[in-house]
## 1
Amino acid sequence: MTGVDKPWTIIVGAGPSGLLLGLMLAKKGVPVQVLEGSSELDDSPRAAYYGPPAAYELRRAGVIEEVRKQGFDPIRTCWRKLDGTYLAGFDNSLLFDDQDRQACLPLAQLDRLLYKHAIAQPTLKVSFNHKVVDLGQDTEKAWADVDTPDGRKRLEAAYIVGCDGASSTVRKCLYGDKDFPGFTWDKQIVATNVAYPFEKYGYDDANFFIHPEHWHMVARLTKNPDGSGWWRVSYGEVSGLTREELIARQPMKYQAILPGHPRPGDYDLAAISPYRIHQRLADSLRSGRFLLAADAAHICNPFGGLGLTGGLVDIGGLYDCLIGVHEGKADESILDKYSEIRRQRFQTVTDPISSQNIRRLYDQDPDKALENDEFLKMLKSIENNVEAQREFMRSPNALRYDFTQHYKGNHKTMEGDQSAKNGIVSQVKEIAPTGGE
Ligand SMILES: Cc1cc2nc3c(=O)[nH]c(=O)nc-3n(C[C@H](O)[C@H](O)[C@H](O)COP(=O)(O)OP(=O)(O)OC[C@H]3O[C@@H](n4cnc5c(N)ncnc54)[C@H](O)[C@@H]3O)c2cc1C
């Protein structure tokens, strides 16, 4: 066997963040073992749209072209009233010449693509049915106690990264059950995948609907040559209902919110999944030889698609930090920098902007939105300004940060991306939402 028997990094979780980190590290020859508790990759209806800084990381990993080939380039994003009246929007095709424009591919497909590339690397191994149950570390190494089909095993590495999602065992082992500060929204959402002829009703690729009760989002998931395909419909629901109650209400909600007021039989429902939604951030993304990234480190409501976009930006940053340490270009203090900066980016960008994104949908009078909502007013004001729209669509790059500037004796920063150079993004007012919810 290769060095995988003695991994330098253990990654807990074979979701998109864990697979991307594993792929990037293994491409540099680092021995990596990815531990996945389930017997297979997750298939639930979640992310599909990834903003420009995530596309940048997928490009660095060498997979963006395939992501775009399997997926498609969304054209327009807009906000509407429940009756379909168009309020404001922007044209993603104005950025089609940018190699790091947003990308759309349902998460299950992205996972499979990353997995295929990851296991092709000779220094990477993915172990399914390996559930991490406990952790420990000393000055020399970190270890994970893992339930496997052959019983409990102890696996060791120099670093262990928790990419194990919102209910992260790694985070709980480090900080206890209660240590995911933040809050849970008093709303929940139901995410569905459906085939229905939205094209016939003049829908754009991503449509956000403002309404106090029936707020929702309709975004294209796949695009066939004839324009048909699967769509994501995610709608708000009152809290306090059970999963069964929420699922039973779906036909009523569809009839109320979708154009043509369809009944079951008028559409093909492929998936339905209720979610509680939260804004939470771990106190630290580093504890000695343990690190946290993506949903294990922070979560937000999915409107505007900042969740995994921010998670993949974590991964790119953590990759630079770990490679720096592995190759002797950086000392371990760079891992503290990782924690500090990624937390700042969540606090100054992801958290406030994603909160505005969801409130915009239910917390205002749709008839007055164009008068009162600063974001929609801004969109209206740049409607005929191509350069301003392009700049706006690149705004999610405020999530980026170049950690290689902390390599020993290196003070270089990323080219042409002022916001990414700065350690602190103090005031981010607007970030272009992707079609993510
Ligand atoms: C409805 C919805 C729509 C969304 N849309 C978007 C979008 O369009 N754009 C966007 O950017 N974000 C979106 N998000 C957010 C996005 O889906 C998440 O941020 C992303 O899936 C998190 O990836 P992850 O790799 O951190 O965790 P996960 O995808 O949750 O993967 C974690 C993995 O760890 C494994 N695991 C857990 N515990 C253990 C253990 N103890 N041992 C071993 N393995 C373990 C799990 O089985 C899982 O495979 C959406 C979320 C929802 C709910």
## 2
Amino acid sequence: MRAAVVVNRSWDFKFHLEKIAVMDLEIPSPGRGEVLVRVYASNINPVDHKIVELAGWSWTYPHKLGYDVAGVVQSVGVGCTRLKATSLMEAPTTAGTYAQYAVVSESILGVKPESISMLEAGAMPMVALTGLESLTWAAGGSQFGKNATVLVLGGSGGTGHMGIQLAKAMGASWIITTCSETHVDFVRQLGADQVIDYHKQNYYDVLLPESVDVVYDCVGLNGTGDHAFNIIKKHGSFVTLLQGAKASISTRLQRPDVHEYAPNCVGTCSQHQRIDTVASFVKEGKLTVHIDQVFGLEDIVKAFNQSLAGHTTGKVALQILGNESEILV
Ligand SMILES: NC(=O)c1ccc[n+]([C@@H]2O[C@H](COP(=O)([O-])OP(=O)(O)OC[C@H]3O[C@@H](n4cnc5c(N)ncnc54)[C@H](OP(=O)(O)O)[C@@H]3O)[C@@H](O)[C@H]2O)c1
């Protein structure tokens, strides 16, 4: 099979595009509780390059990349009880989905809603599951309370555009977001009620102190927590996707009432029950994925380049197998 890999270790432990290649590898075999998926689509998440710096020292090479997948189960390993041949979307822990076949734990695969394409299904899992985890925590359950105001920082990117829609689907009554001017119409269409162009204004200057219930930070700049705590209402919540954006100790001492959470959703948020929750939002027409650009597997370096530029509108998708008429379900 063809697979995108990091060819060998970087001794500076950084991600280097010139170390990414597409090569022929053996089709893997599913072990206990695993299934072999014929991969139709995936996408680029920032973790797909950050992981090289975080874990690349411990890998054997060539190392396969890619977390999200949409595809069809080709065969099942010993001990699988839920799945046979079907179409799927999910976010696996073990990675290796930038390939024509991937082995994935059965427990984290969910059934793809019929209303979306394989390409869309392959672009959604990690960003949707991250939003679901973050906003469910912030809401203290599946729905926000009455008149909840949610600020999504970075509403036009992968996690941000899911965050706006999920906040709306979960009953938030006023959604504010930050983005560049070019993305204002995009985030409004997703459900944002108020948009702040971060190039022109700081959200913490525009918004009044103690005026929002939840800040969902999908950008993760240092110092964000300190700014965000000030605009969060009493007993409100700050969720950031980057540890470095958490509030300083002095801010937390001044505002002990604010709840703070920096989830690590890579892998840990992947459970088939959560995929089912995401799928139900999709089926109800409350959640769609916006695909900015589509690349083939052989163009993986171009796809990474697009994501690394940091201004993706929604997602950069990977089309690995093209013919949707082959899909059985
Ligand atoms: N903790 C976890 O479990 C977890 C899970 C998923 C992702 N993450 C992390 O979360 C971050 C976001 O991921 P992503 O997939 O959403 O990335 P992405 O799709 O690459 O996000 C790109 C977006 O960021 C926006 N942006 C950049 N600087 C901004 C700023 N100062 N203010 C507002 N928006 C800004 C850009 O908006 P404009 O183009 O409009 O300027 C662009 O649309 C990454 O660092 C990723 O590693 C963490």
## 3
Amino acid sequence: MTARADPLLDALSGLPPGALRLGADVGAGHARDMSMTPGVLLRPGSTAEVALMLAACNDLRRPVVVQGGRTGLAGGASPREGEVALSLERMRDLTEADPLTSTIIAEAGVTLQRVQEAASAGGLRLAIDIGSRGSATIGGVIACNAGGIRVISHGMMRQHVLGLEAVLADGTILSRLGTLVKDNTGTDLKHLFIGTEGTLGVVTRAVLALSPEPADLAMAYCALGRLVDARGVLQSLQARFGRRLSAFEFIEARVHAAACAFGAVSPVPEGQGPTP
Ligand SMILES: Cc1cc2nc3c(=O)[nH]c(=O)nc-3n(C[C@H](O)[C@H](O)[C@H](O)COP(=O)(O)OP(=O)(O)OC[C@H]3O[C@@H](n4cnc5c(N)ncnc54)[C@H](O)[C@@H]3O)c2cc1C
């Protein structure tokens, strides 16, 4: 179908500039690995525009793939033949951290790192951290229910979402942006959108729970001879520190070597390298 003959473009003709890209203007970055560059890229700037776009796609039975930072490793953001891509890259509003409720409200396209930095500026932190923090978006992290290096003490992303706004495939907006930890006013629908990778709706905004920055942090870097020893180290640290052990990560020898070559970490002394 040529762009001109596409009825979706007629349905969305009232969109503001920048909200829609076609053909070569889409950019190869919106493809992933072996997937194809989508012919139509929708770039909503607001929840209302997400609703308008999804309703139009739904009416025309056009399949949609939702894209955040496109760092996911399972291919969920990779467009397939005939799919329209809907990227949250223009939805980047972020409030300041609220010290009274220990929360922050982020639109779906805000990167995890920006939220971490905003929380830190308020003396608080979002206790989720993953290597893709600089590109992964709040919408994507919620959609994947990401874990990361602090998962053993702080749980997965689900534990940090207090309120959520999402748009269903027909354009219906569901909004429950409460900031309360204790909220048992009816069915908590937000859980339908956490970890379901956009299959049940598009996450547009979230209220995230923050916690105080720890007063002090200590890091131990252990070089082990065998993988099985990592479990023993973890168990003894947990026995000693309980929930104060905030993060734990195992690094394979080849990954460690690559990080050293890149200059990101220091090599361990000769003969004491990590598990092959
Ligand atoms: C270096 C690196 C380290 C990582 N480390 C970890 C880790 O330690 N733990 C861990 O759990 N994961 C890890 N990940 C994967 C991690 O889950 C993703 O990076 C991140 O959660 C995806 O966010 P994204 O914005 O890039 O989403 P995308 O990759 O764009 O999308 C991921 C999925 O979510 C859907 N989606 C995106 N945005 C929305 C939205 N607004 N509404 C609904 N659906 C949406 C997409 O359709 C797709 O199915 C890592 C990835 C990398 C590259």
## 4
Amino acid sequence: MIPASRLVEEANPACAQCHGKERFETPQLAWAVWQKMPRRSIRQVYRCEQCGGWHIGEVRS
Ligand SMILES: [Zn+2]
């Protein structure tokens, strides 16, 4: 019997985008949280192709 968690991992092999990040249902919600964050680093709100939600990620140059 295969654990359910393994099935999820196999279905989303590139889910590293989601790892350790908050997931938001709408971009409006993500931007609202983004505005409260410290501006030490440049961040972006992007749509995740893996989970279909929205994440806030840091932009590193
Ligand atoms: Zn995601």
